[in-house]
Amino acid sequence: MTGSDHSKIDRIVARISMLIEQGVMRNGTRLRSLRSAAEEYGVSKNTVVEAYDRLVARGYVEPRHGAGFYVLPARRKPGDPVAARMVEAVDVASLLREQLEHNFTVRLGEGRPPAEWVEGSVLKSHLRNIASGPRGLFEHAYESPIGFEPLRQSLSRILGDRAIGAGIDQVLLTIGANHAFDLIIRQYLRPGDAVLTDSPGYYPLFAKFKLAGIRMVGVRRGRDGPDAEDLAEKARQSGARMFFTQSHAHNPTGGSLQLGRAHEILRIAELLDFVIVEDDAFGDLMPASAPRLAALDQLRRVIYVGTYAKILSASLRVGYVAASREVIANLVNMKMLTIVNSSGYVERIVHTVINDGHYRHHLKRLGRRVSEARNSALRMLHGMGMHAEIEDGEGYYLWVSLPEGVDDIELTRKAAREGIFLAPGSIFEVEGTRTERRHIRLNVAYVSDPRFHDFAMRTLRSPQ
Description:
One of its GO terms (molecular function) is pyridoxal phosphate binding. It holds the Pfam family GntR. In the C-terminal section; belongs to the class-I pyridoxal-phosphate-dependent aminotransferase family. Keywords: Aminotransferase, DNA-binding, Pyridoxal phosphate, Transcription, Transcription regulation, Transferase. This protein starts with a helix and ends in a 5-residue tail after the last helix. It is of the alpha/beta class. The chain has three domains: 69 residues, Arc Repressor Mutant, subunit A; 129 residues, Alpha-Beta Complex (Aspartate Aminotransferase, domain 1); 221 residues, Aspartate Aminotransferase, domain 2 (3-Layer(aba) Sandwich), CATH 3.40.640. Strand 7, helix 12 and strand 8 form a beta-alpha-beta unit.
């Protein structure tokens, strides 16, 4: 055996042993077949056999007659540093930390609307009424992990208005959309699995994938939704069995899924046999008739996720999952095992609010504010010779192209020194799908701030 062969063996052994030590490949995981591993590493099957034999000798894996090689429990030393995937996840979540800690005075990178837009009199009045209500309003006991039944009944009705047939037993309440994603990932994905996701897409979700040791495969996002050809190609190449996508008022581009594209996506999912997780964070702001994958599919292979955090209040962490009865039963068990149940108090507040006649007025008022702020932001950007990729989009976000040669990360650092919080586009993009042109995500509510206008005129204005 040549020195080159030994080097290849050492590389394979080092790679697999690292994944096992970091917990990415867990106890009981089956290693790739000899043929598959040989193709992945670009070596002969004999080289893979030698590498696997070394892993057996070092106690990392065990051979099972006729079934391949399987991972043994990882050998960890007390005091080992945190796994690399935790570091990566925290790094991706750094933008989220800035949103939570409020270190900046001008907050264009903010993912939520201003508190005064969503926490108006309608919410405050209900909080006062509930706080002053009878002592017997809530029972001080654990409630069903599936969530407060009257709220699930209301959500079943709301989903019916969107042509999504979901019985009360097909709705699970969660602590916001992020909790819903966490339950789905824990239940259906394992370290080393591939998952398809929008790129650009929702960066806190990317952090969850990294934390779980999941391999992200970015699907290009266009004006009408995910690129169907790219989705089909990536699904075939990766073997991924799950695709996470946001249909409407997409974060960060502001685009929305069109009906024809929705049909294409479902056809591809059926052909290649993968599940779709559809994020509809702004569902109540969108028309009930807007094309939704869950409505076209009727929850056969679509898991539908909604939330009230971005429409009522970031402090009201209530979200939900609508799916088949089998999926909901699995997720209820996962929720029960991880957090027992969610807050019955908060779920009652949300139920009271959304069933009050004032909620409809709140949605209309919020929709007008978003539309007016969006138009104002676009006028300001046009004045600087800049534009958003999707100017006729919806929701809180503008995906803005930066002038040629401007680096989004460096721009974000420069803005931070002036107390301005920007969201660099690269954090929303999966590696391998990034374009040469750099972007930033802007929240329409803050674009007209004169301090940002002054900063942008000095650093971003394109020559006329």
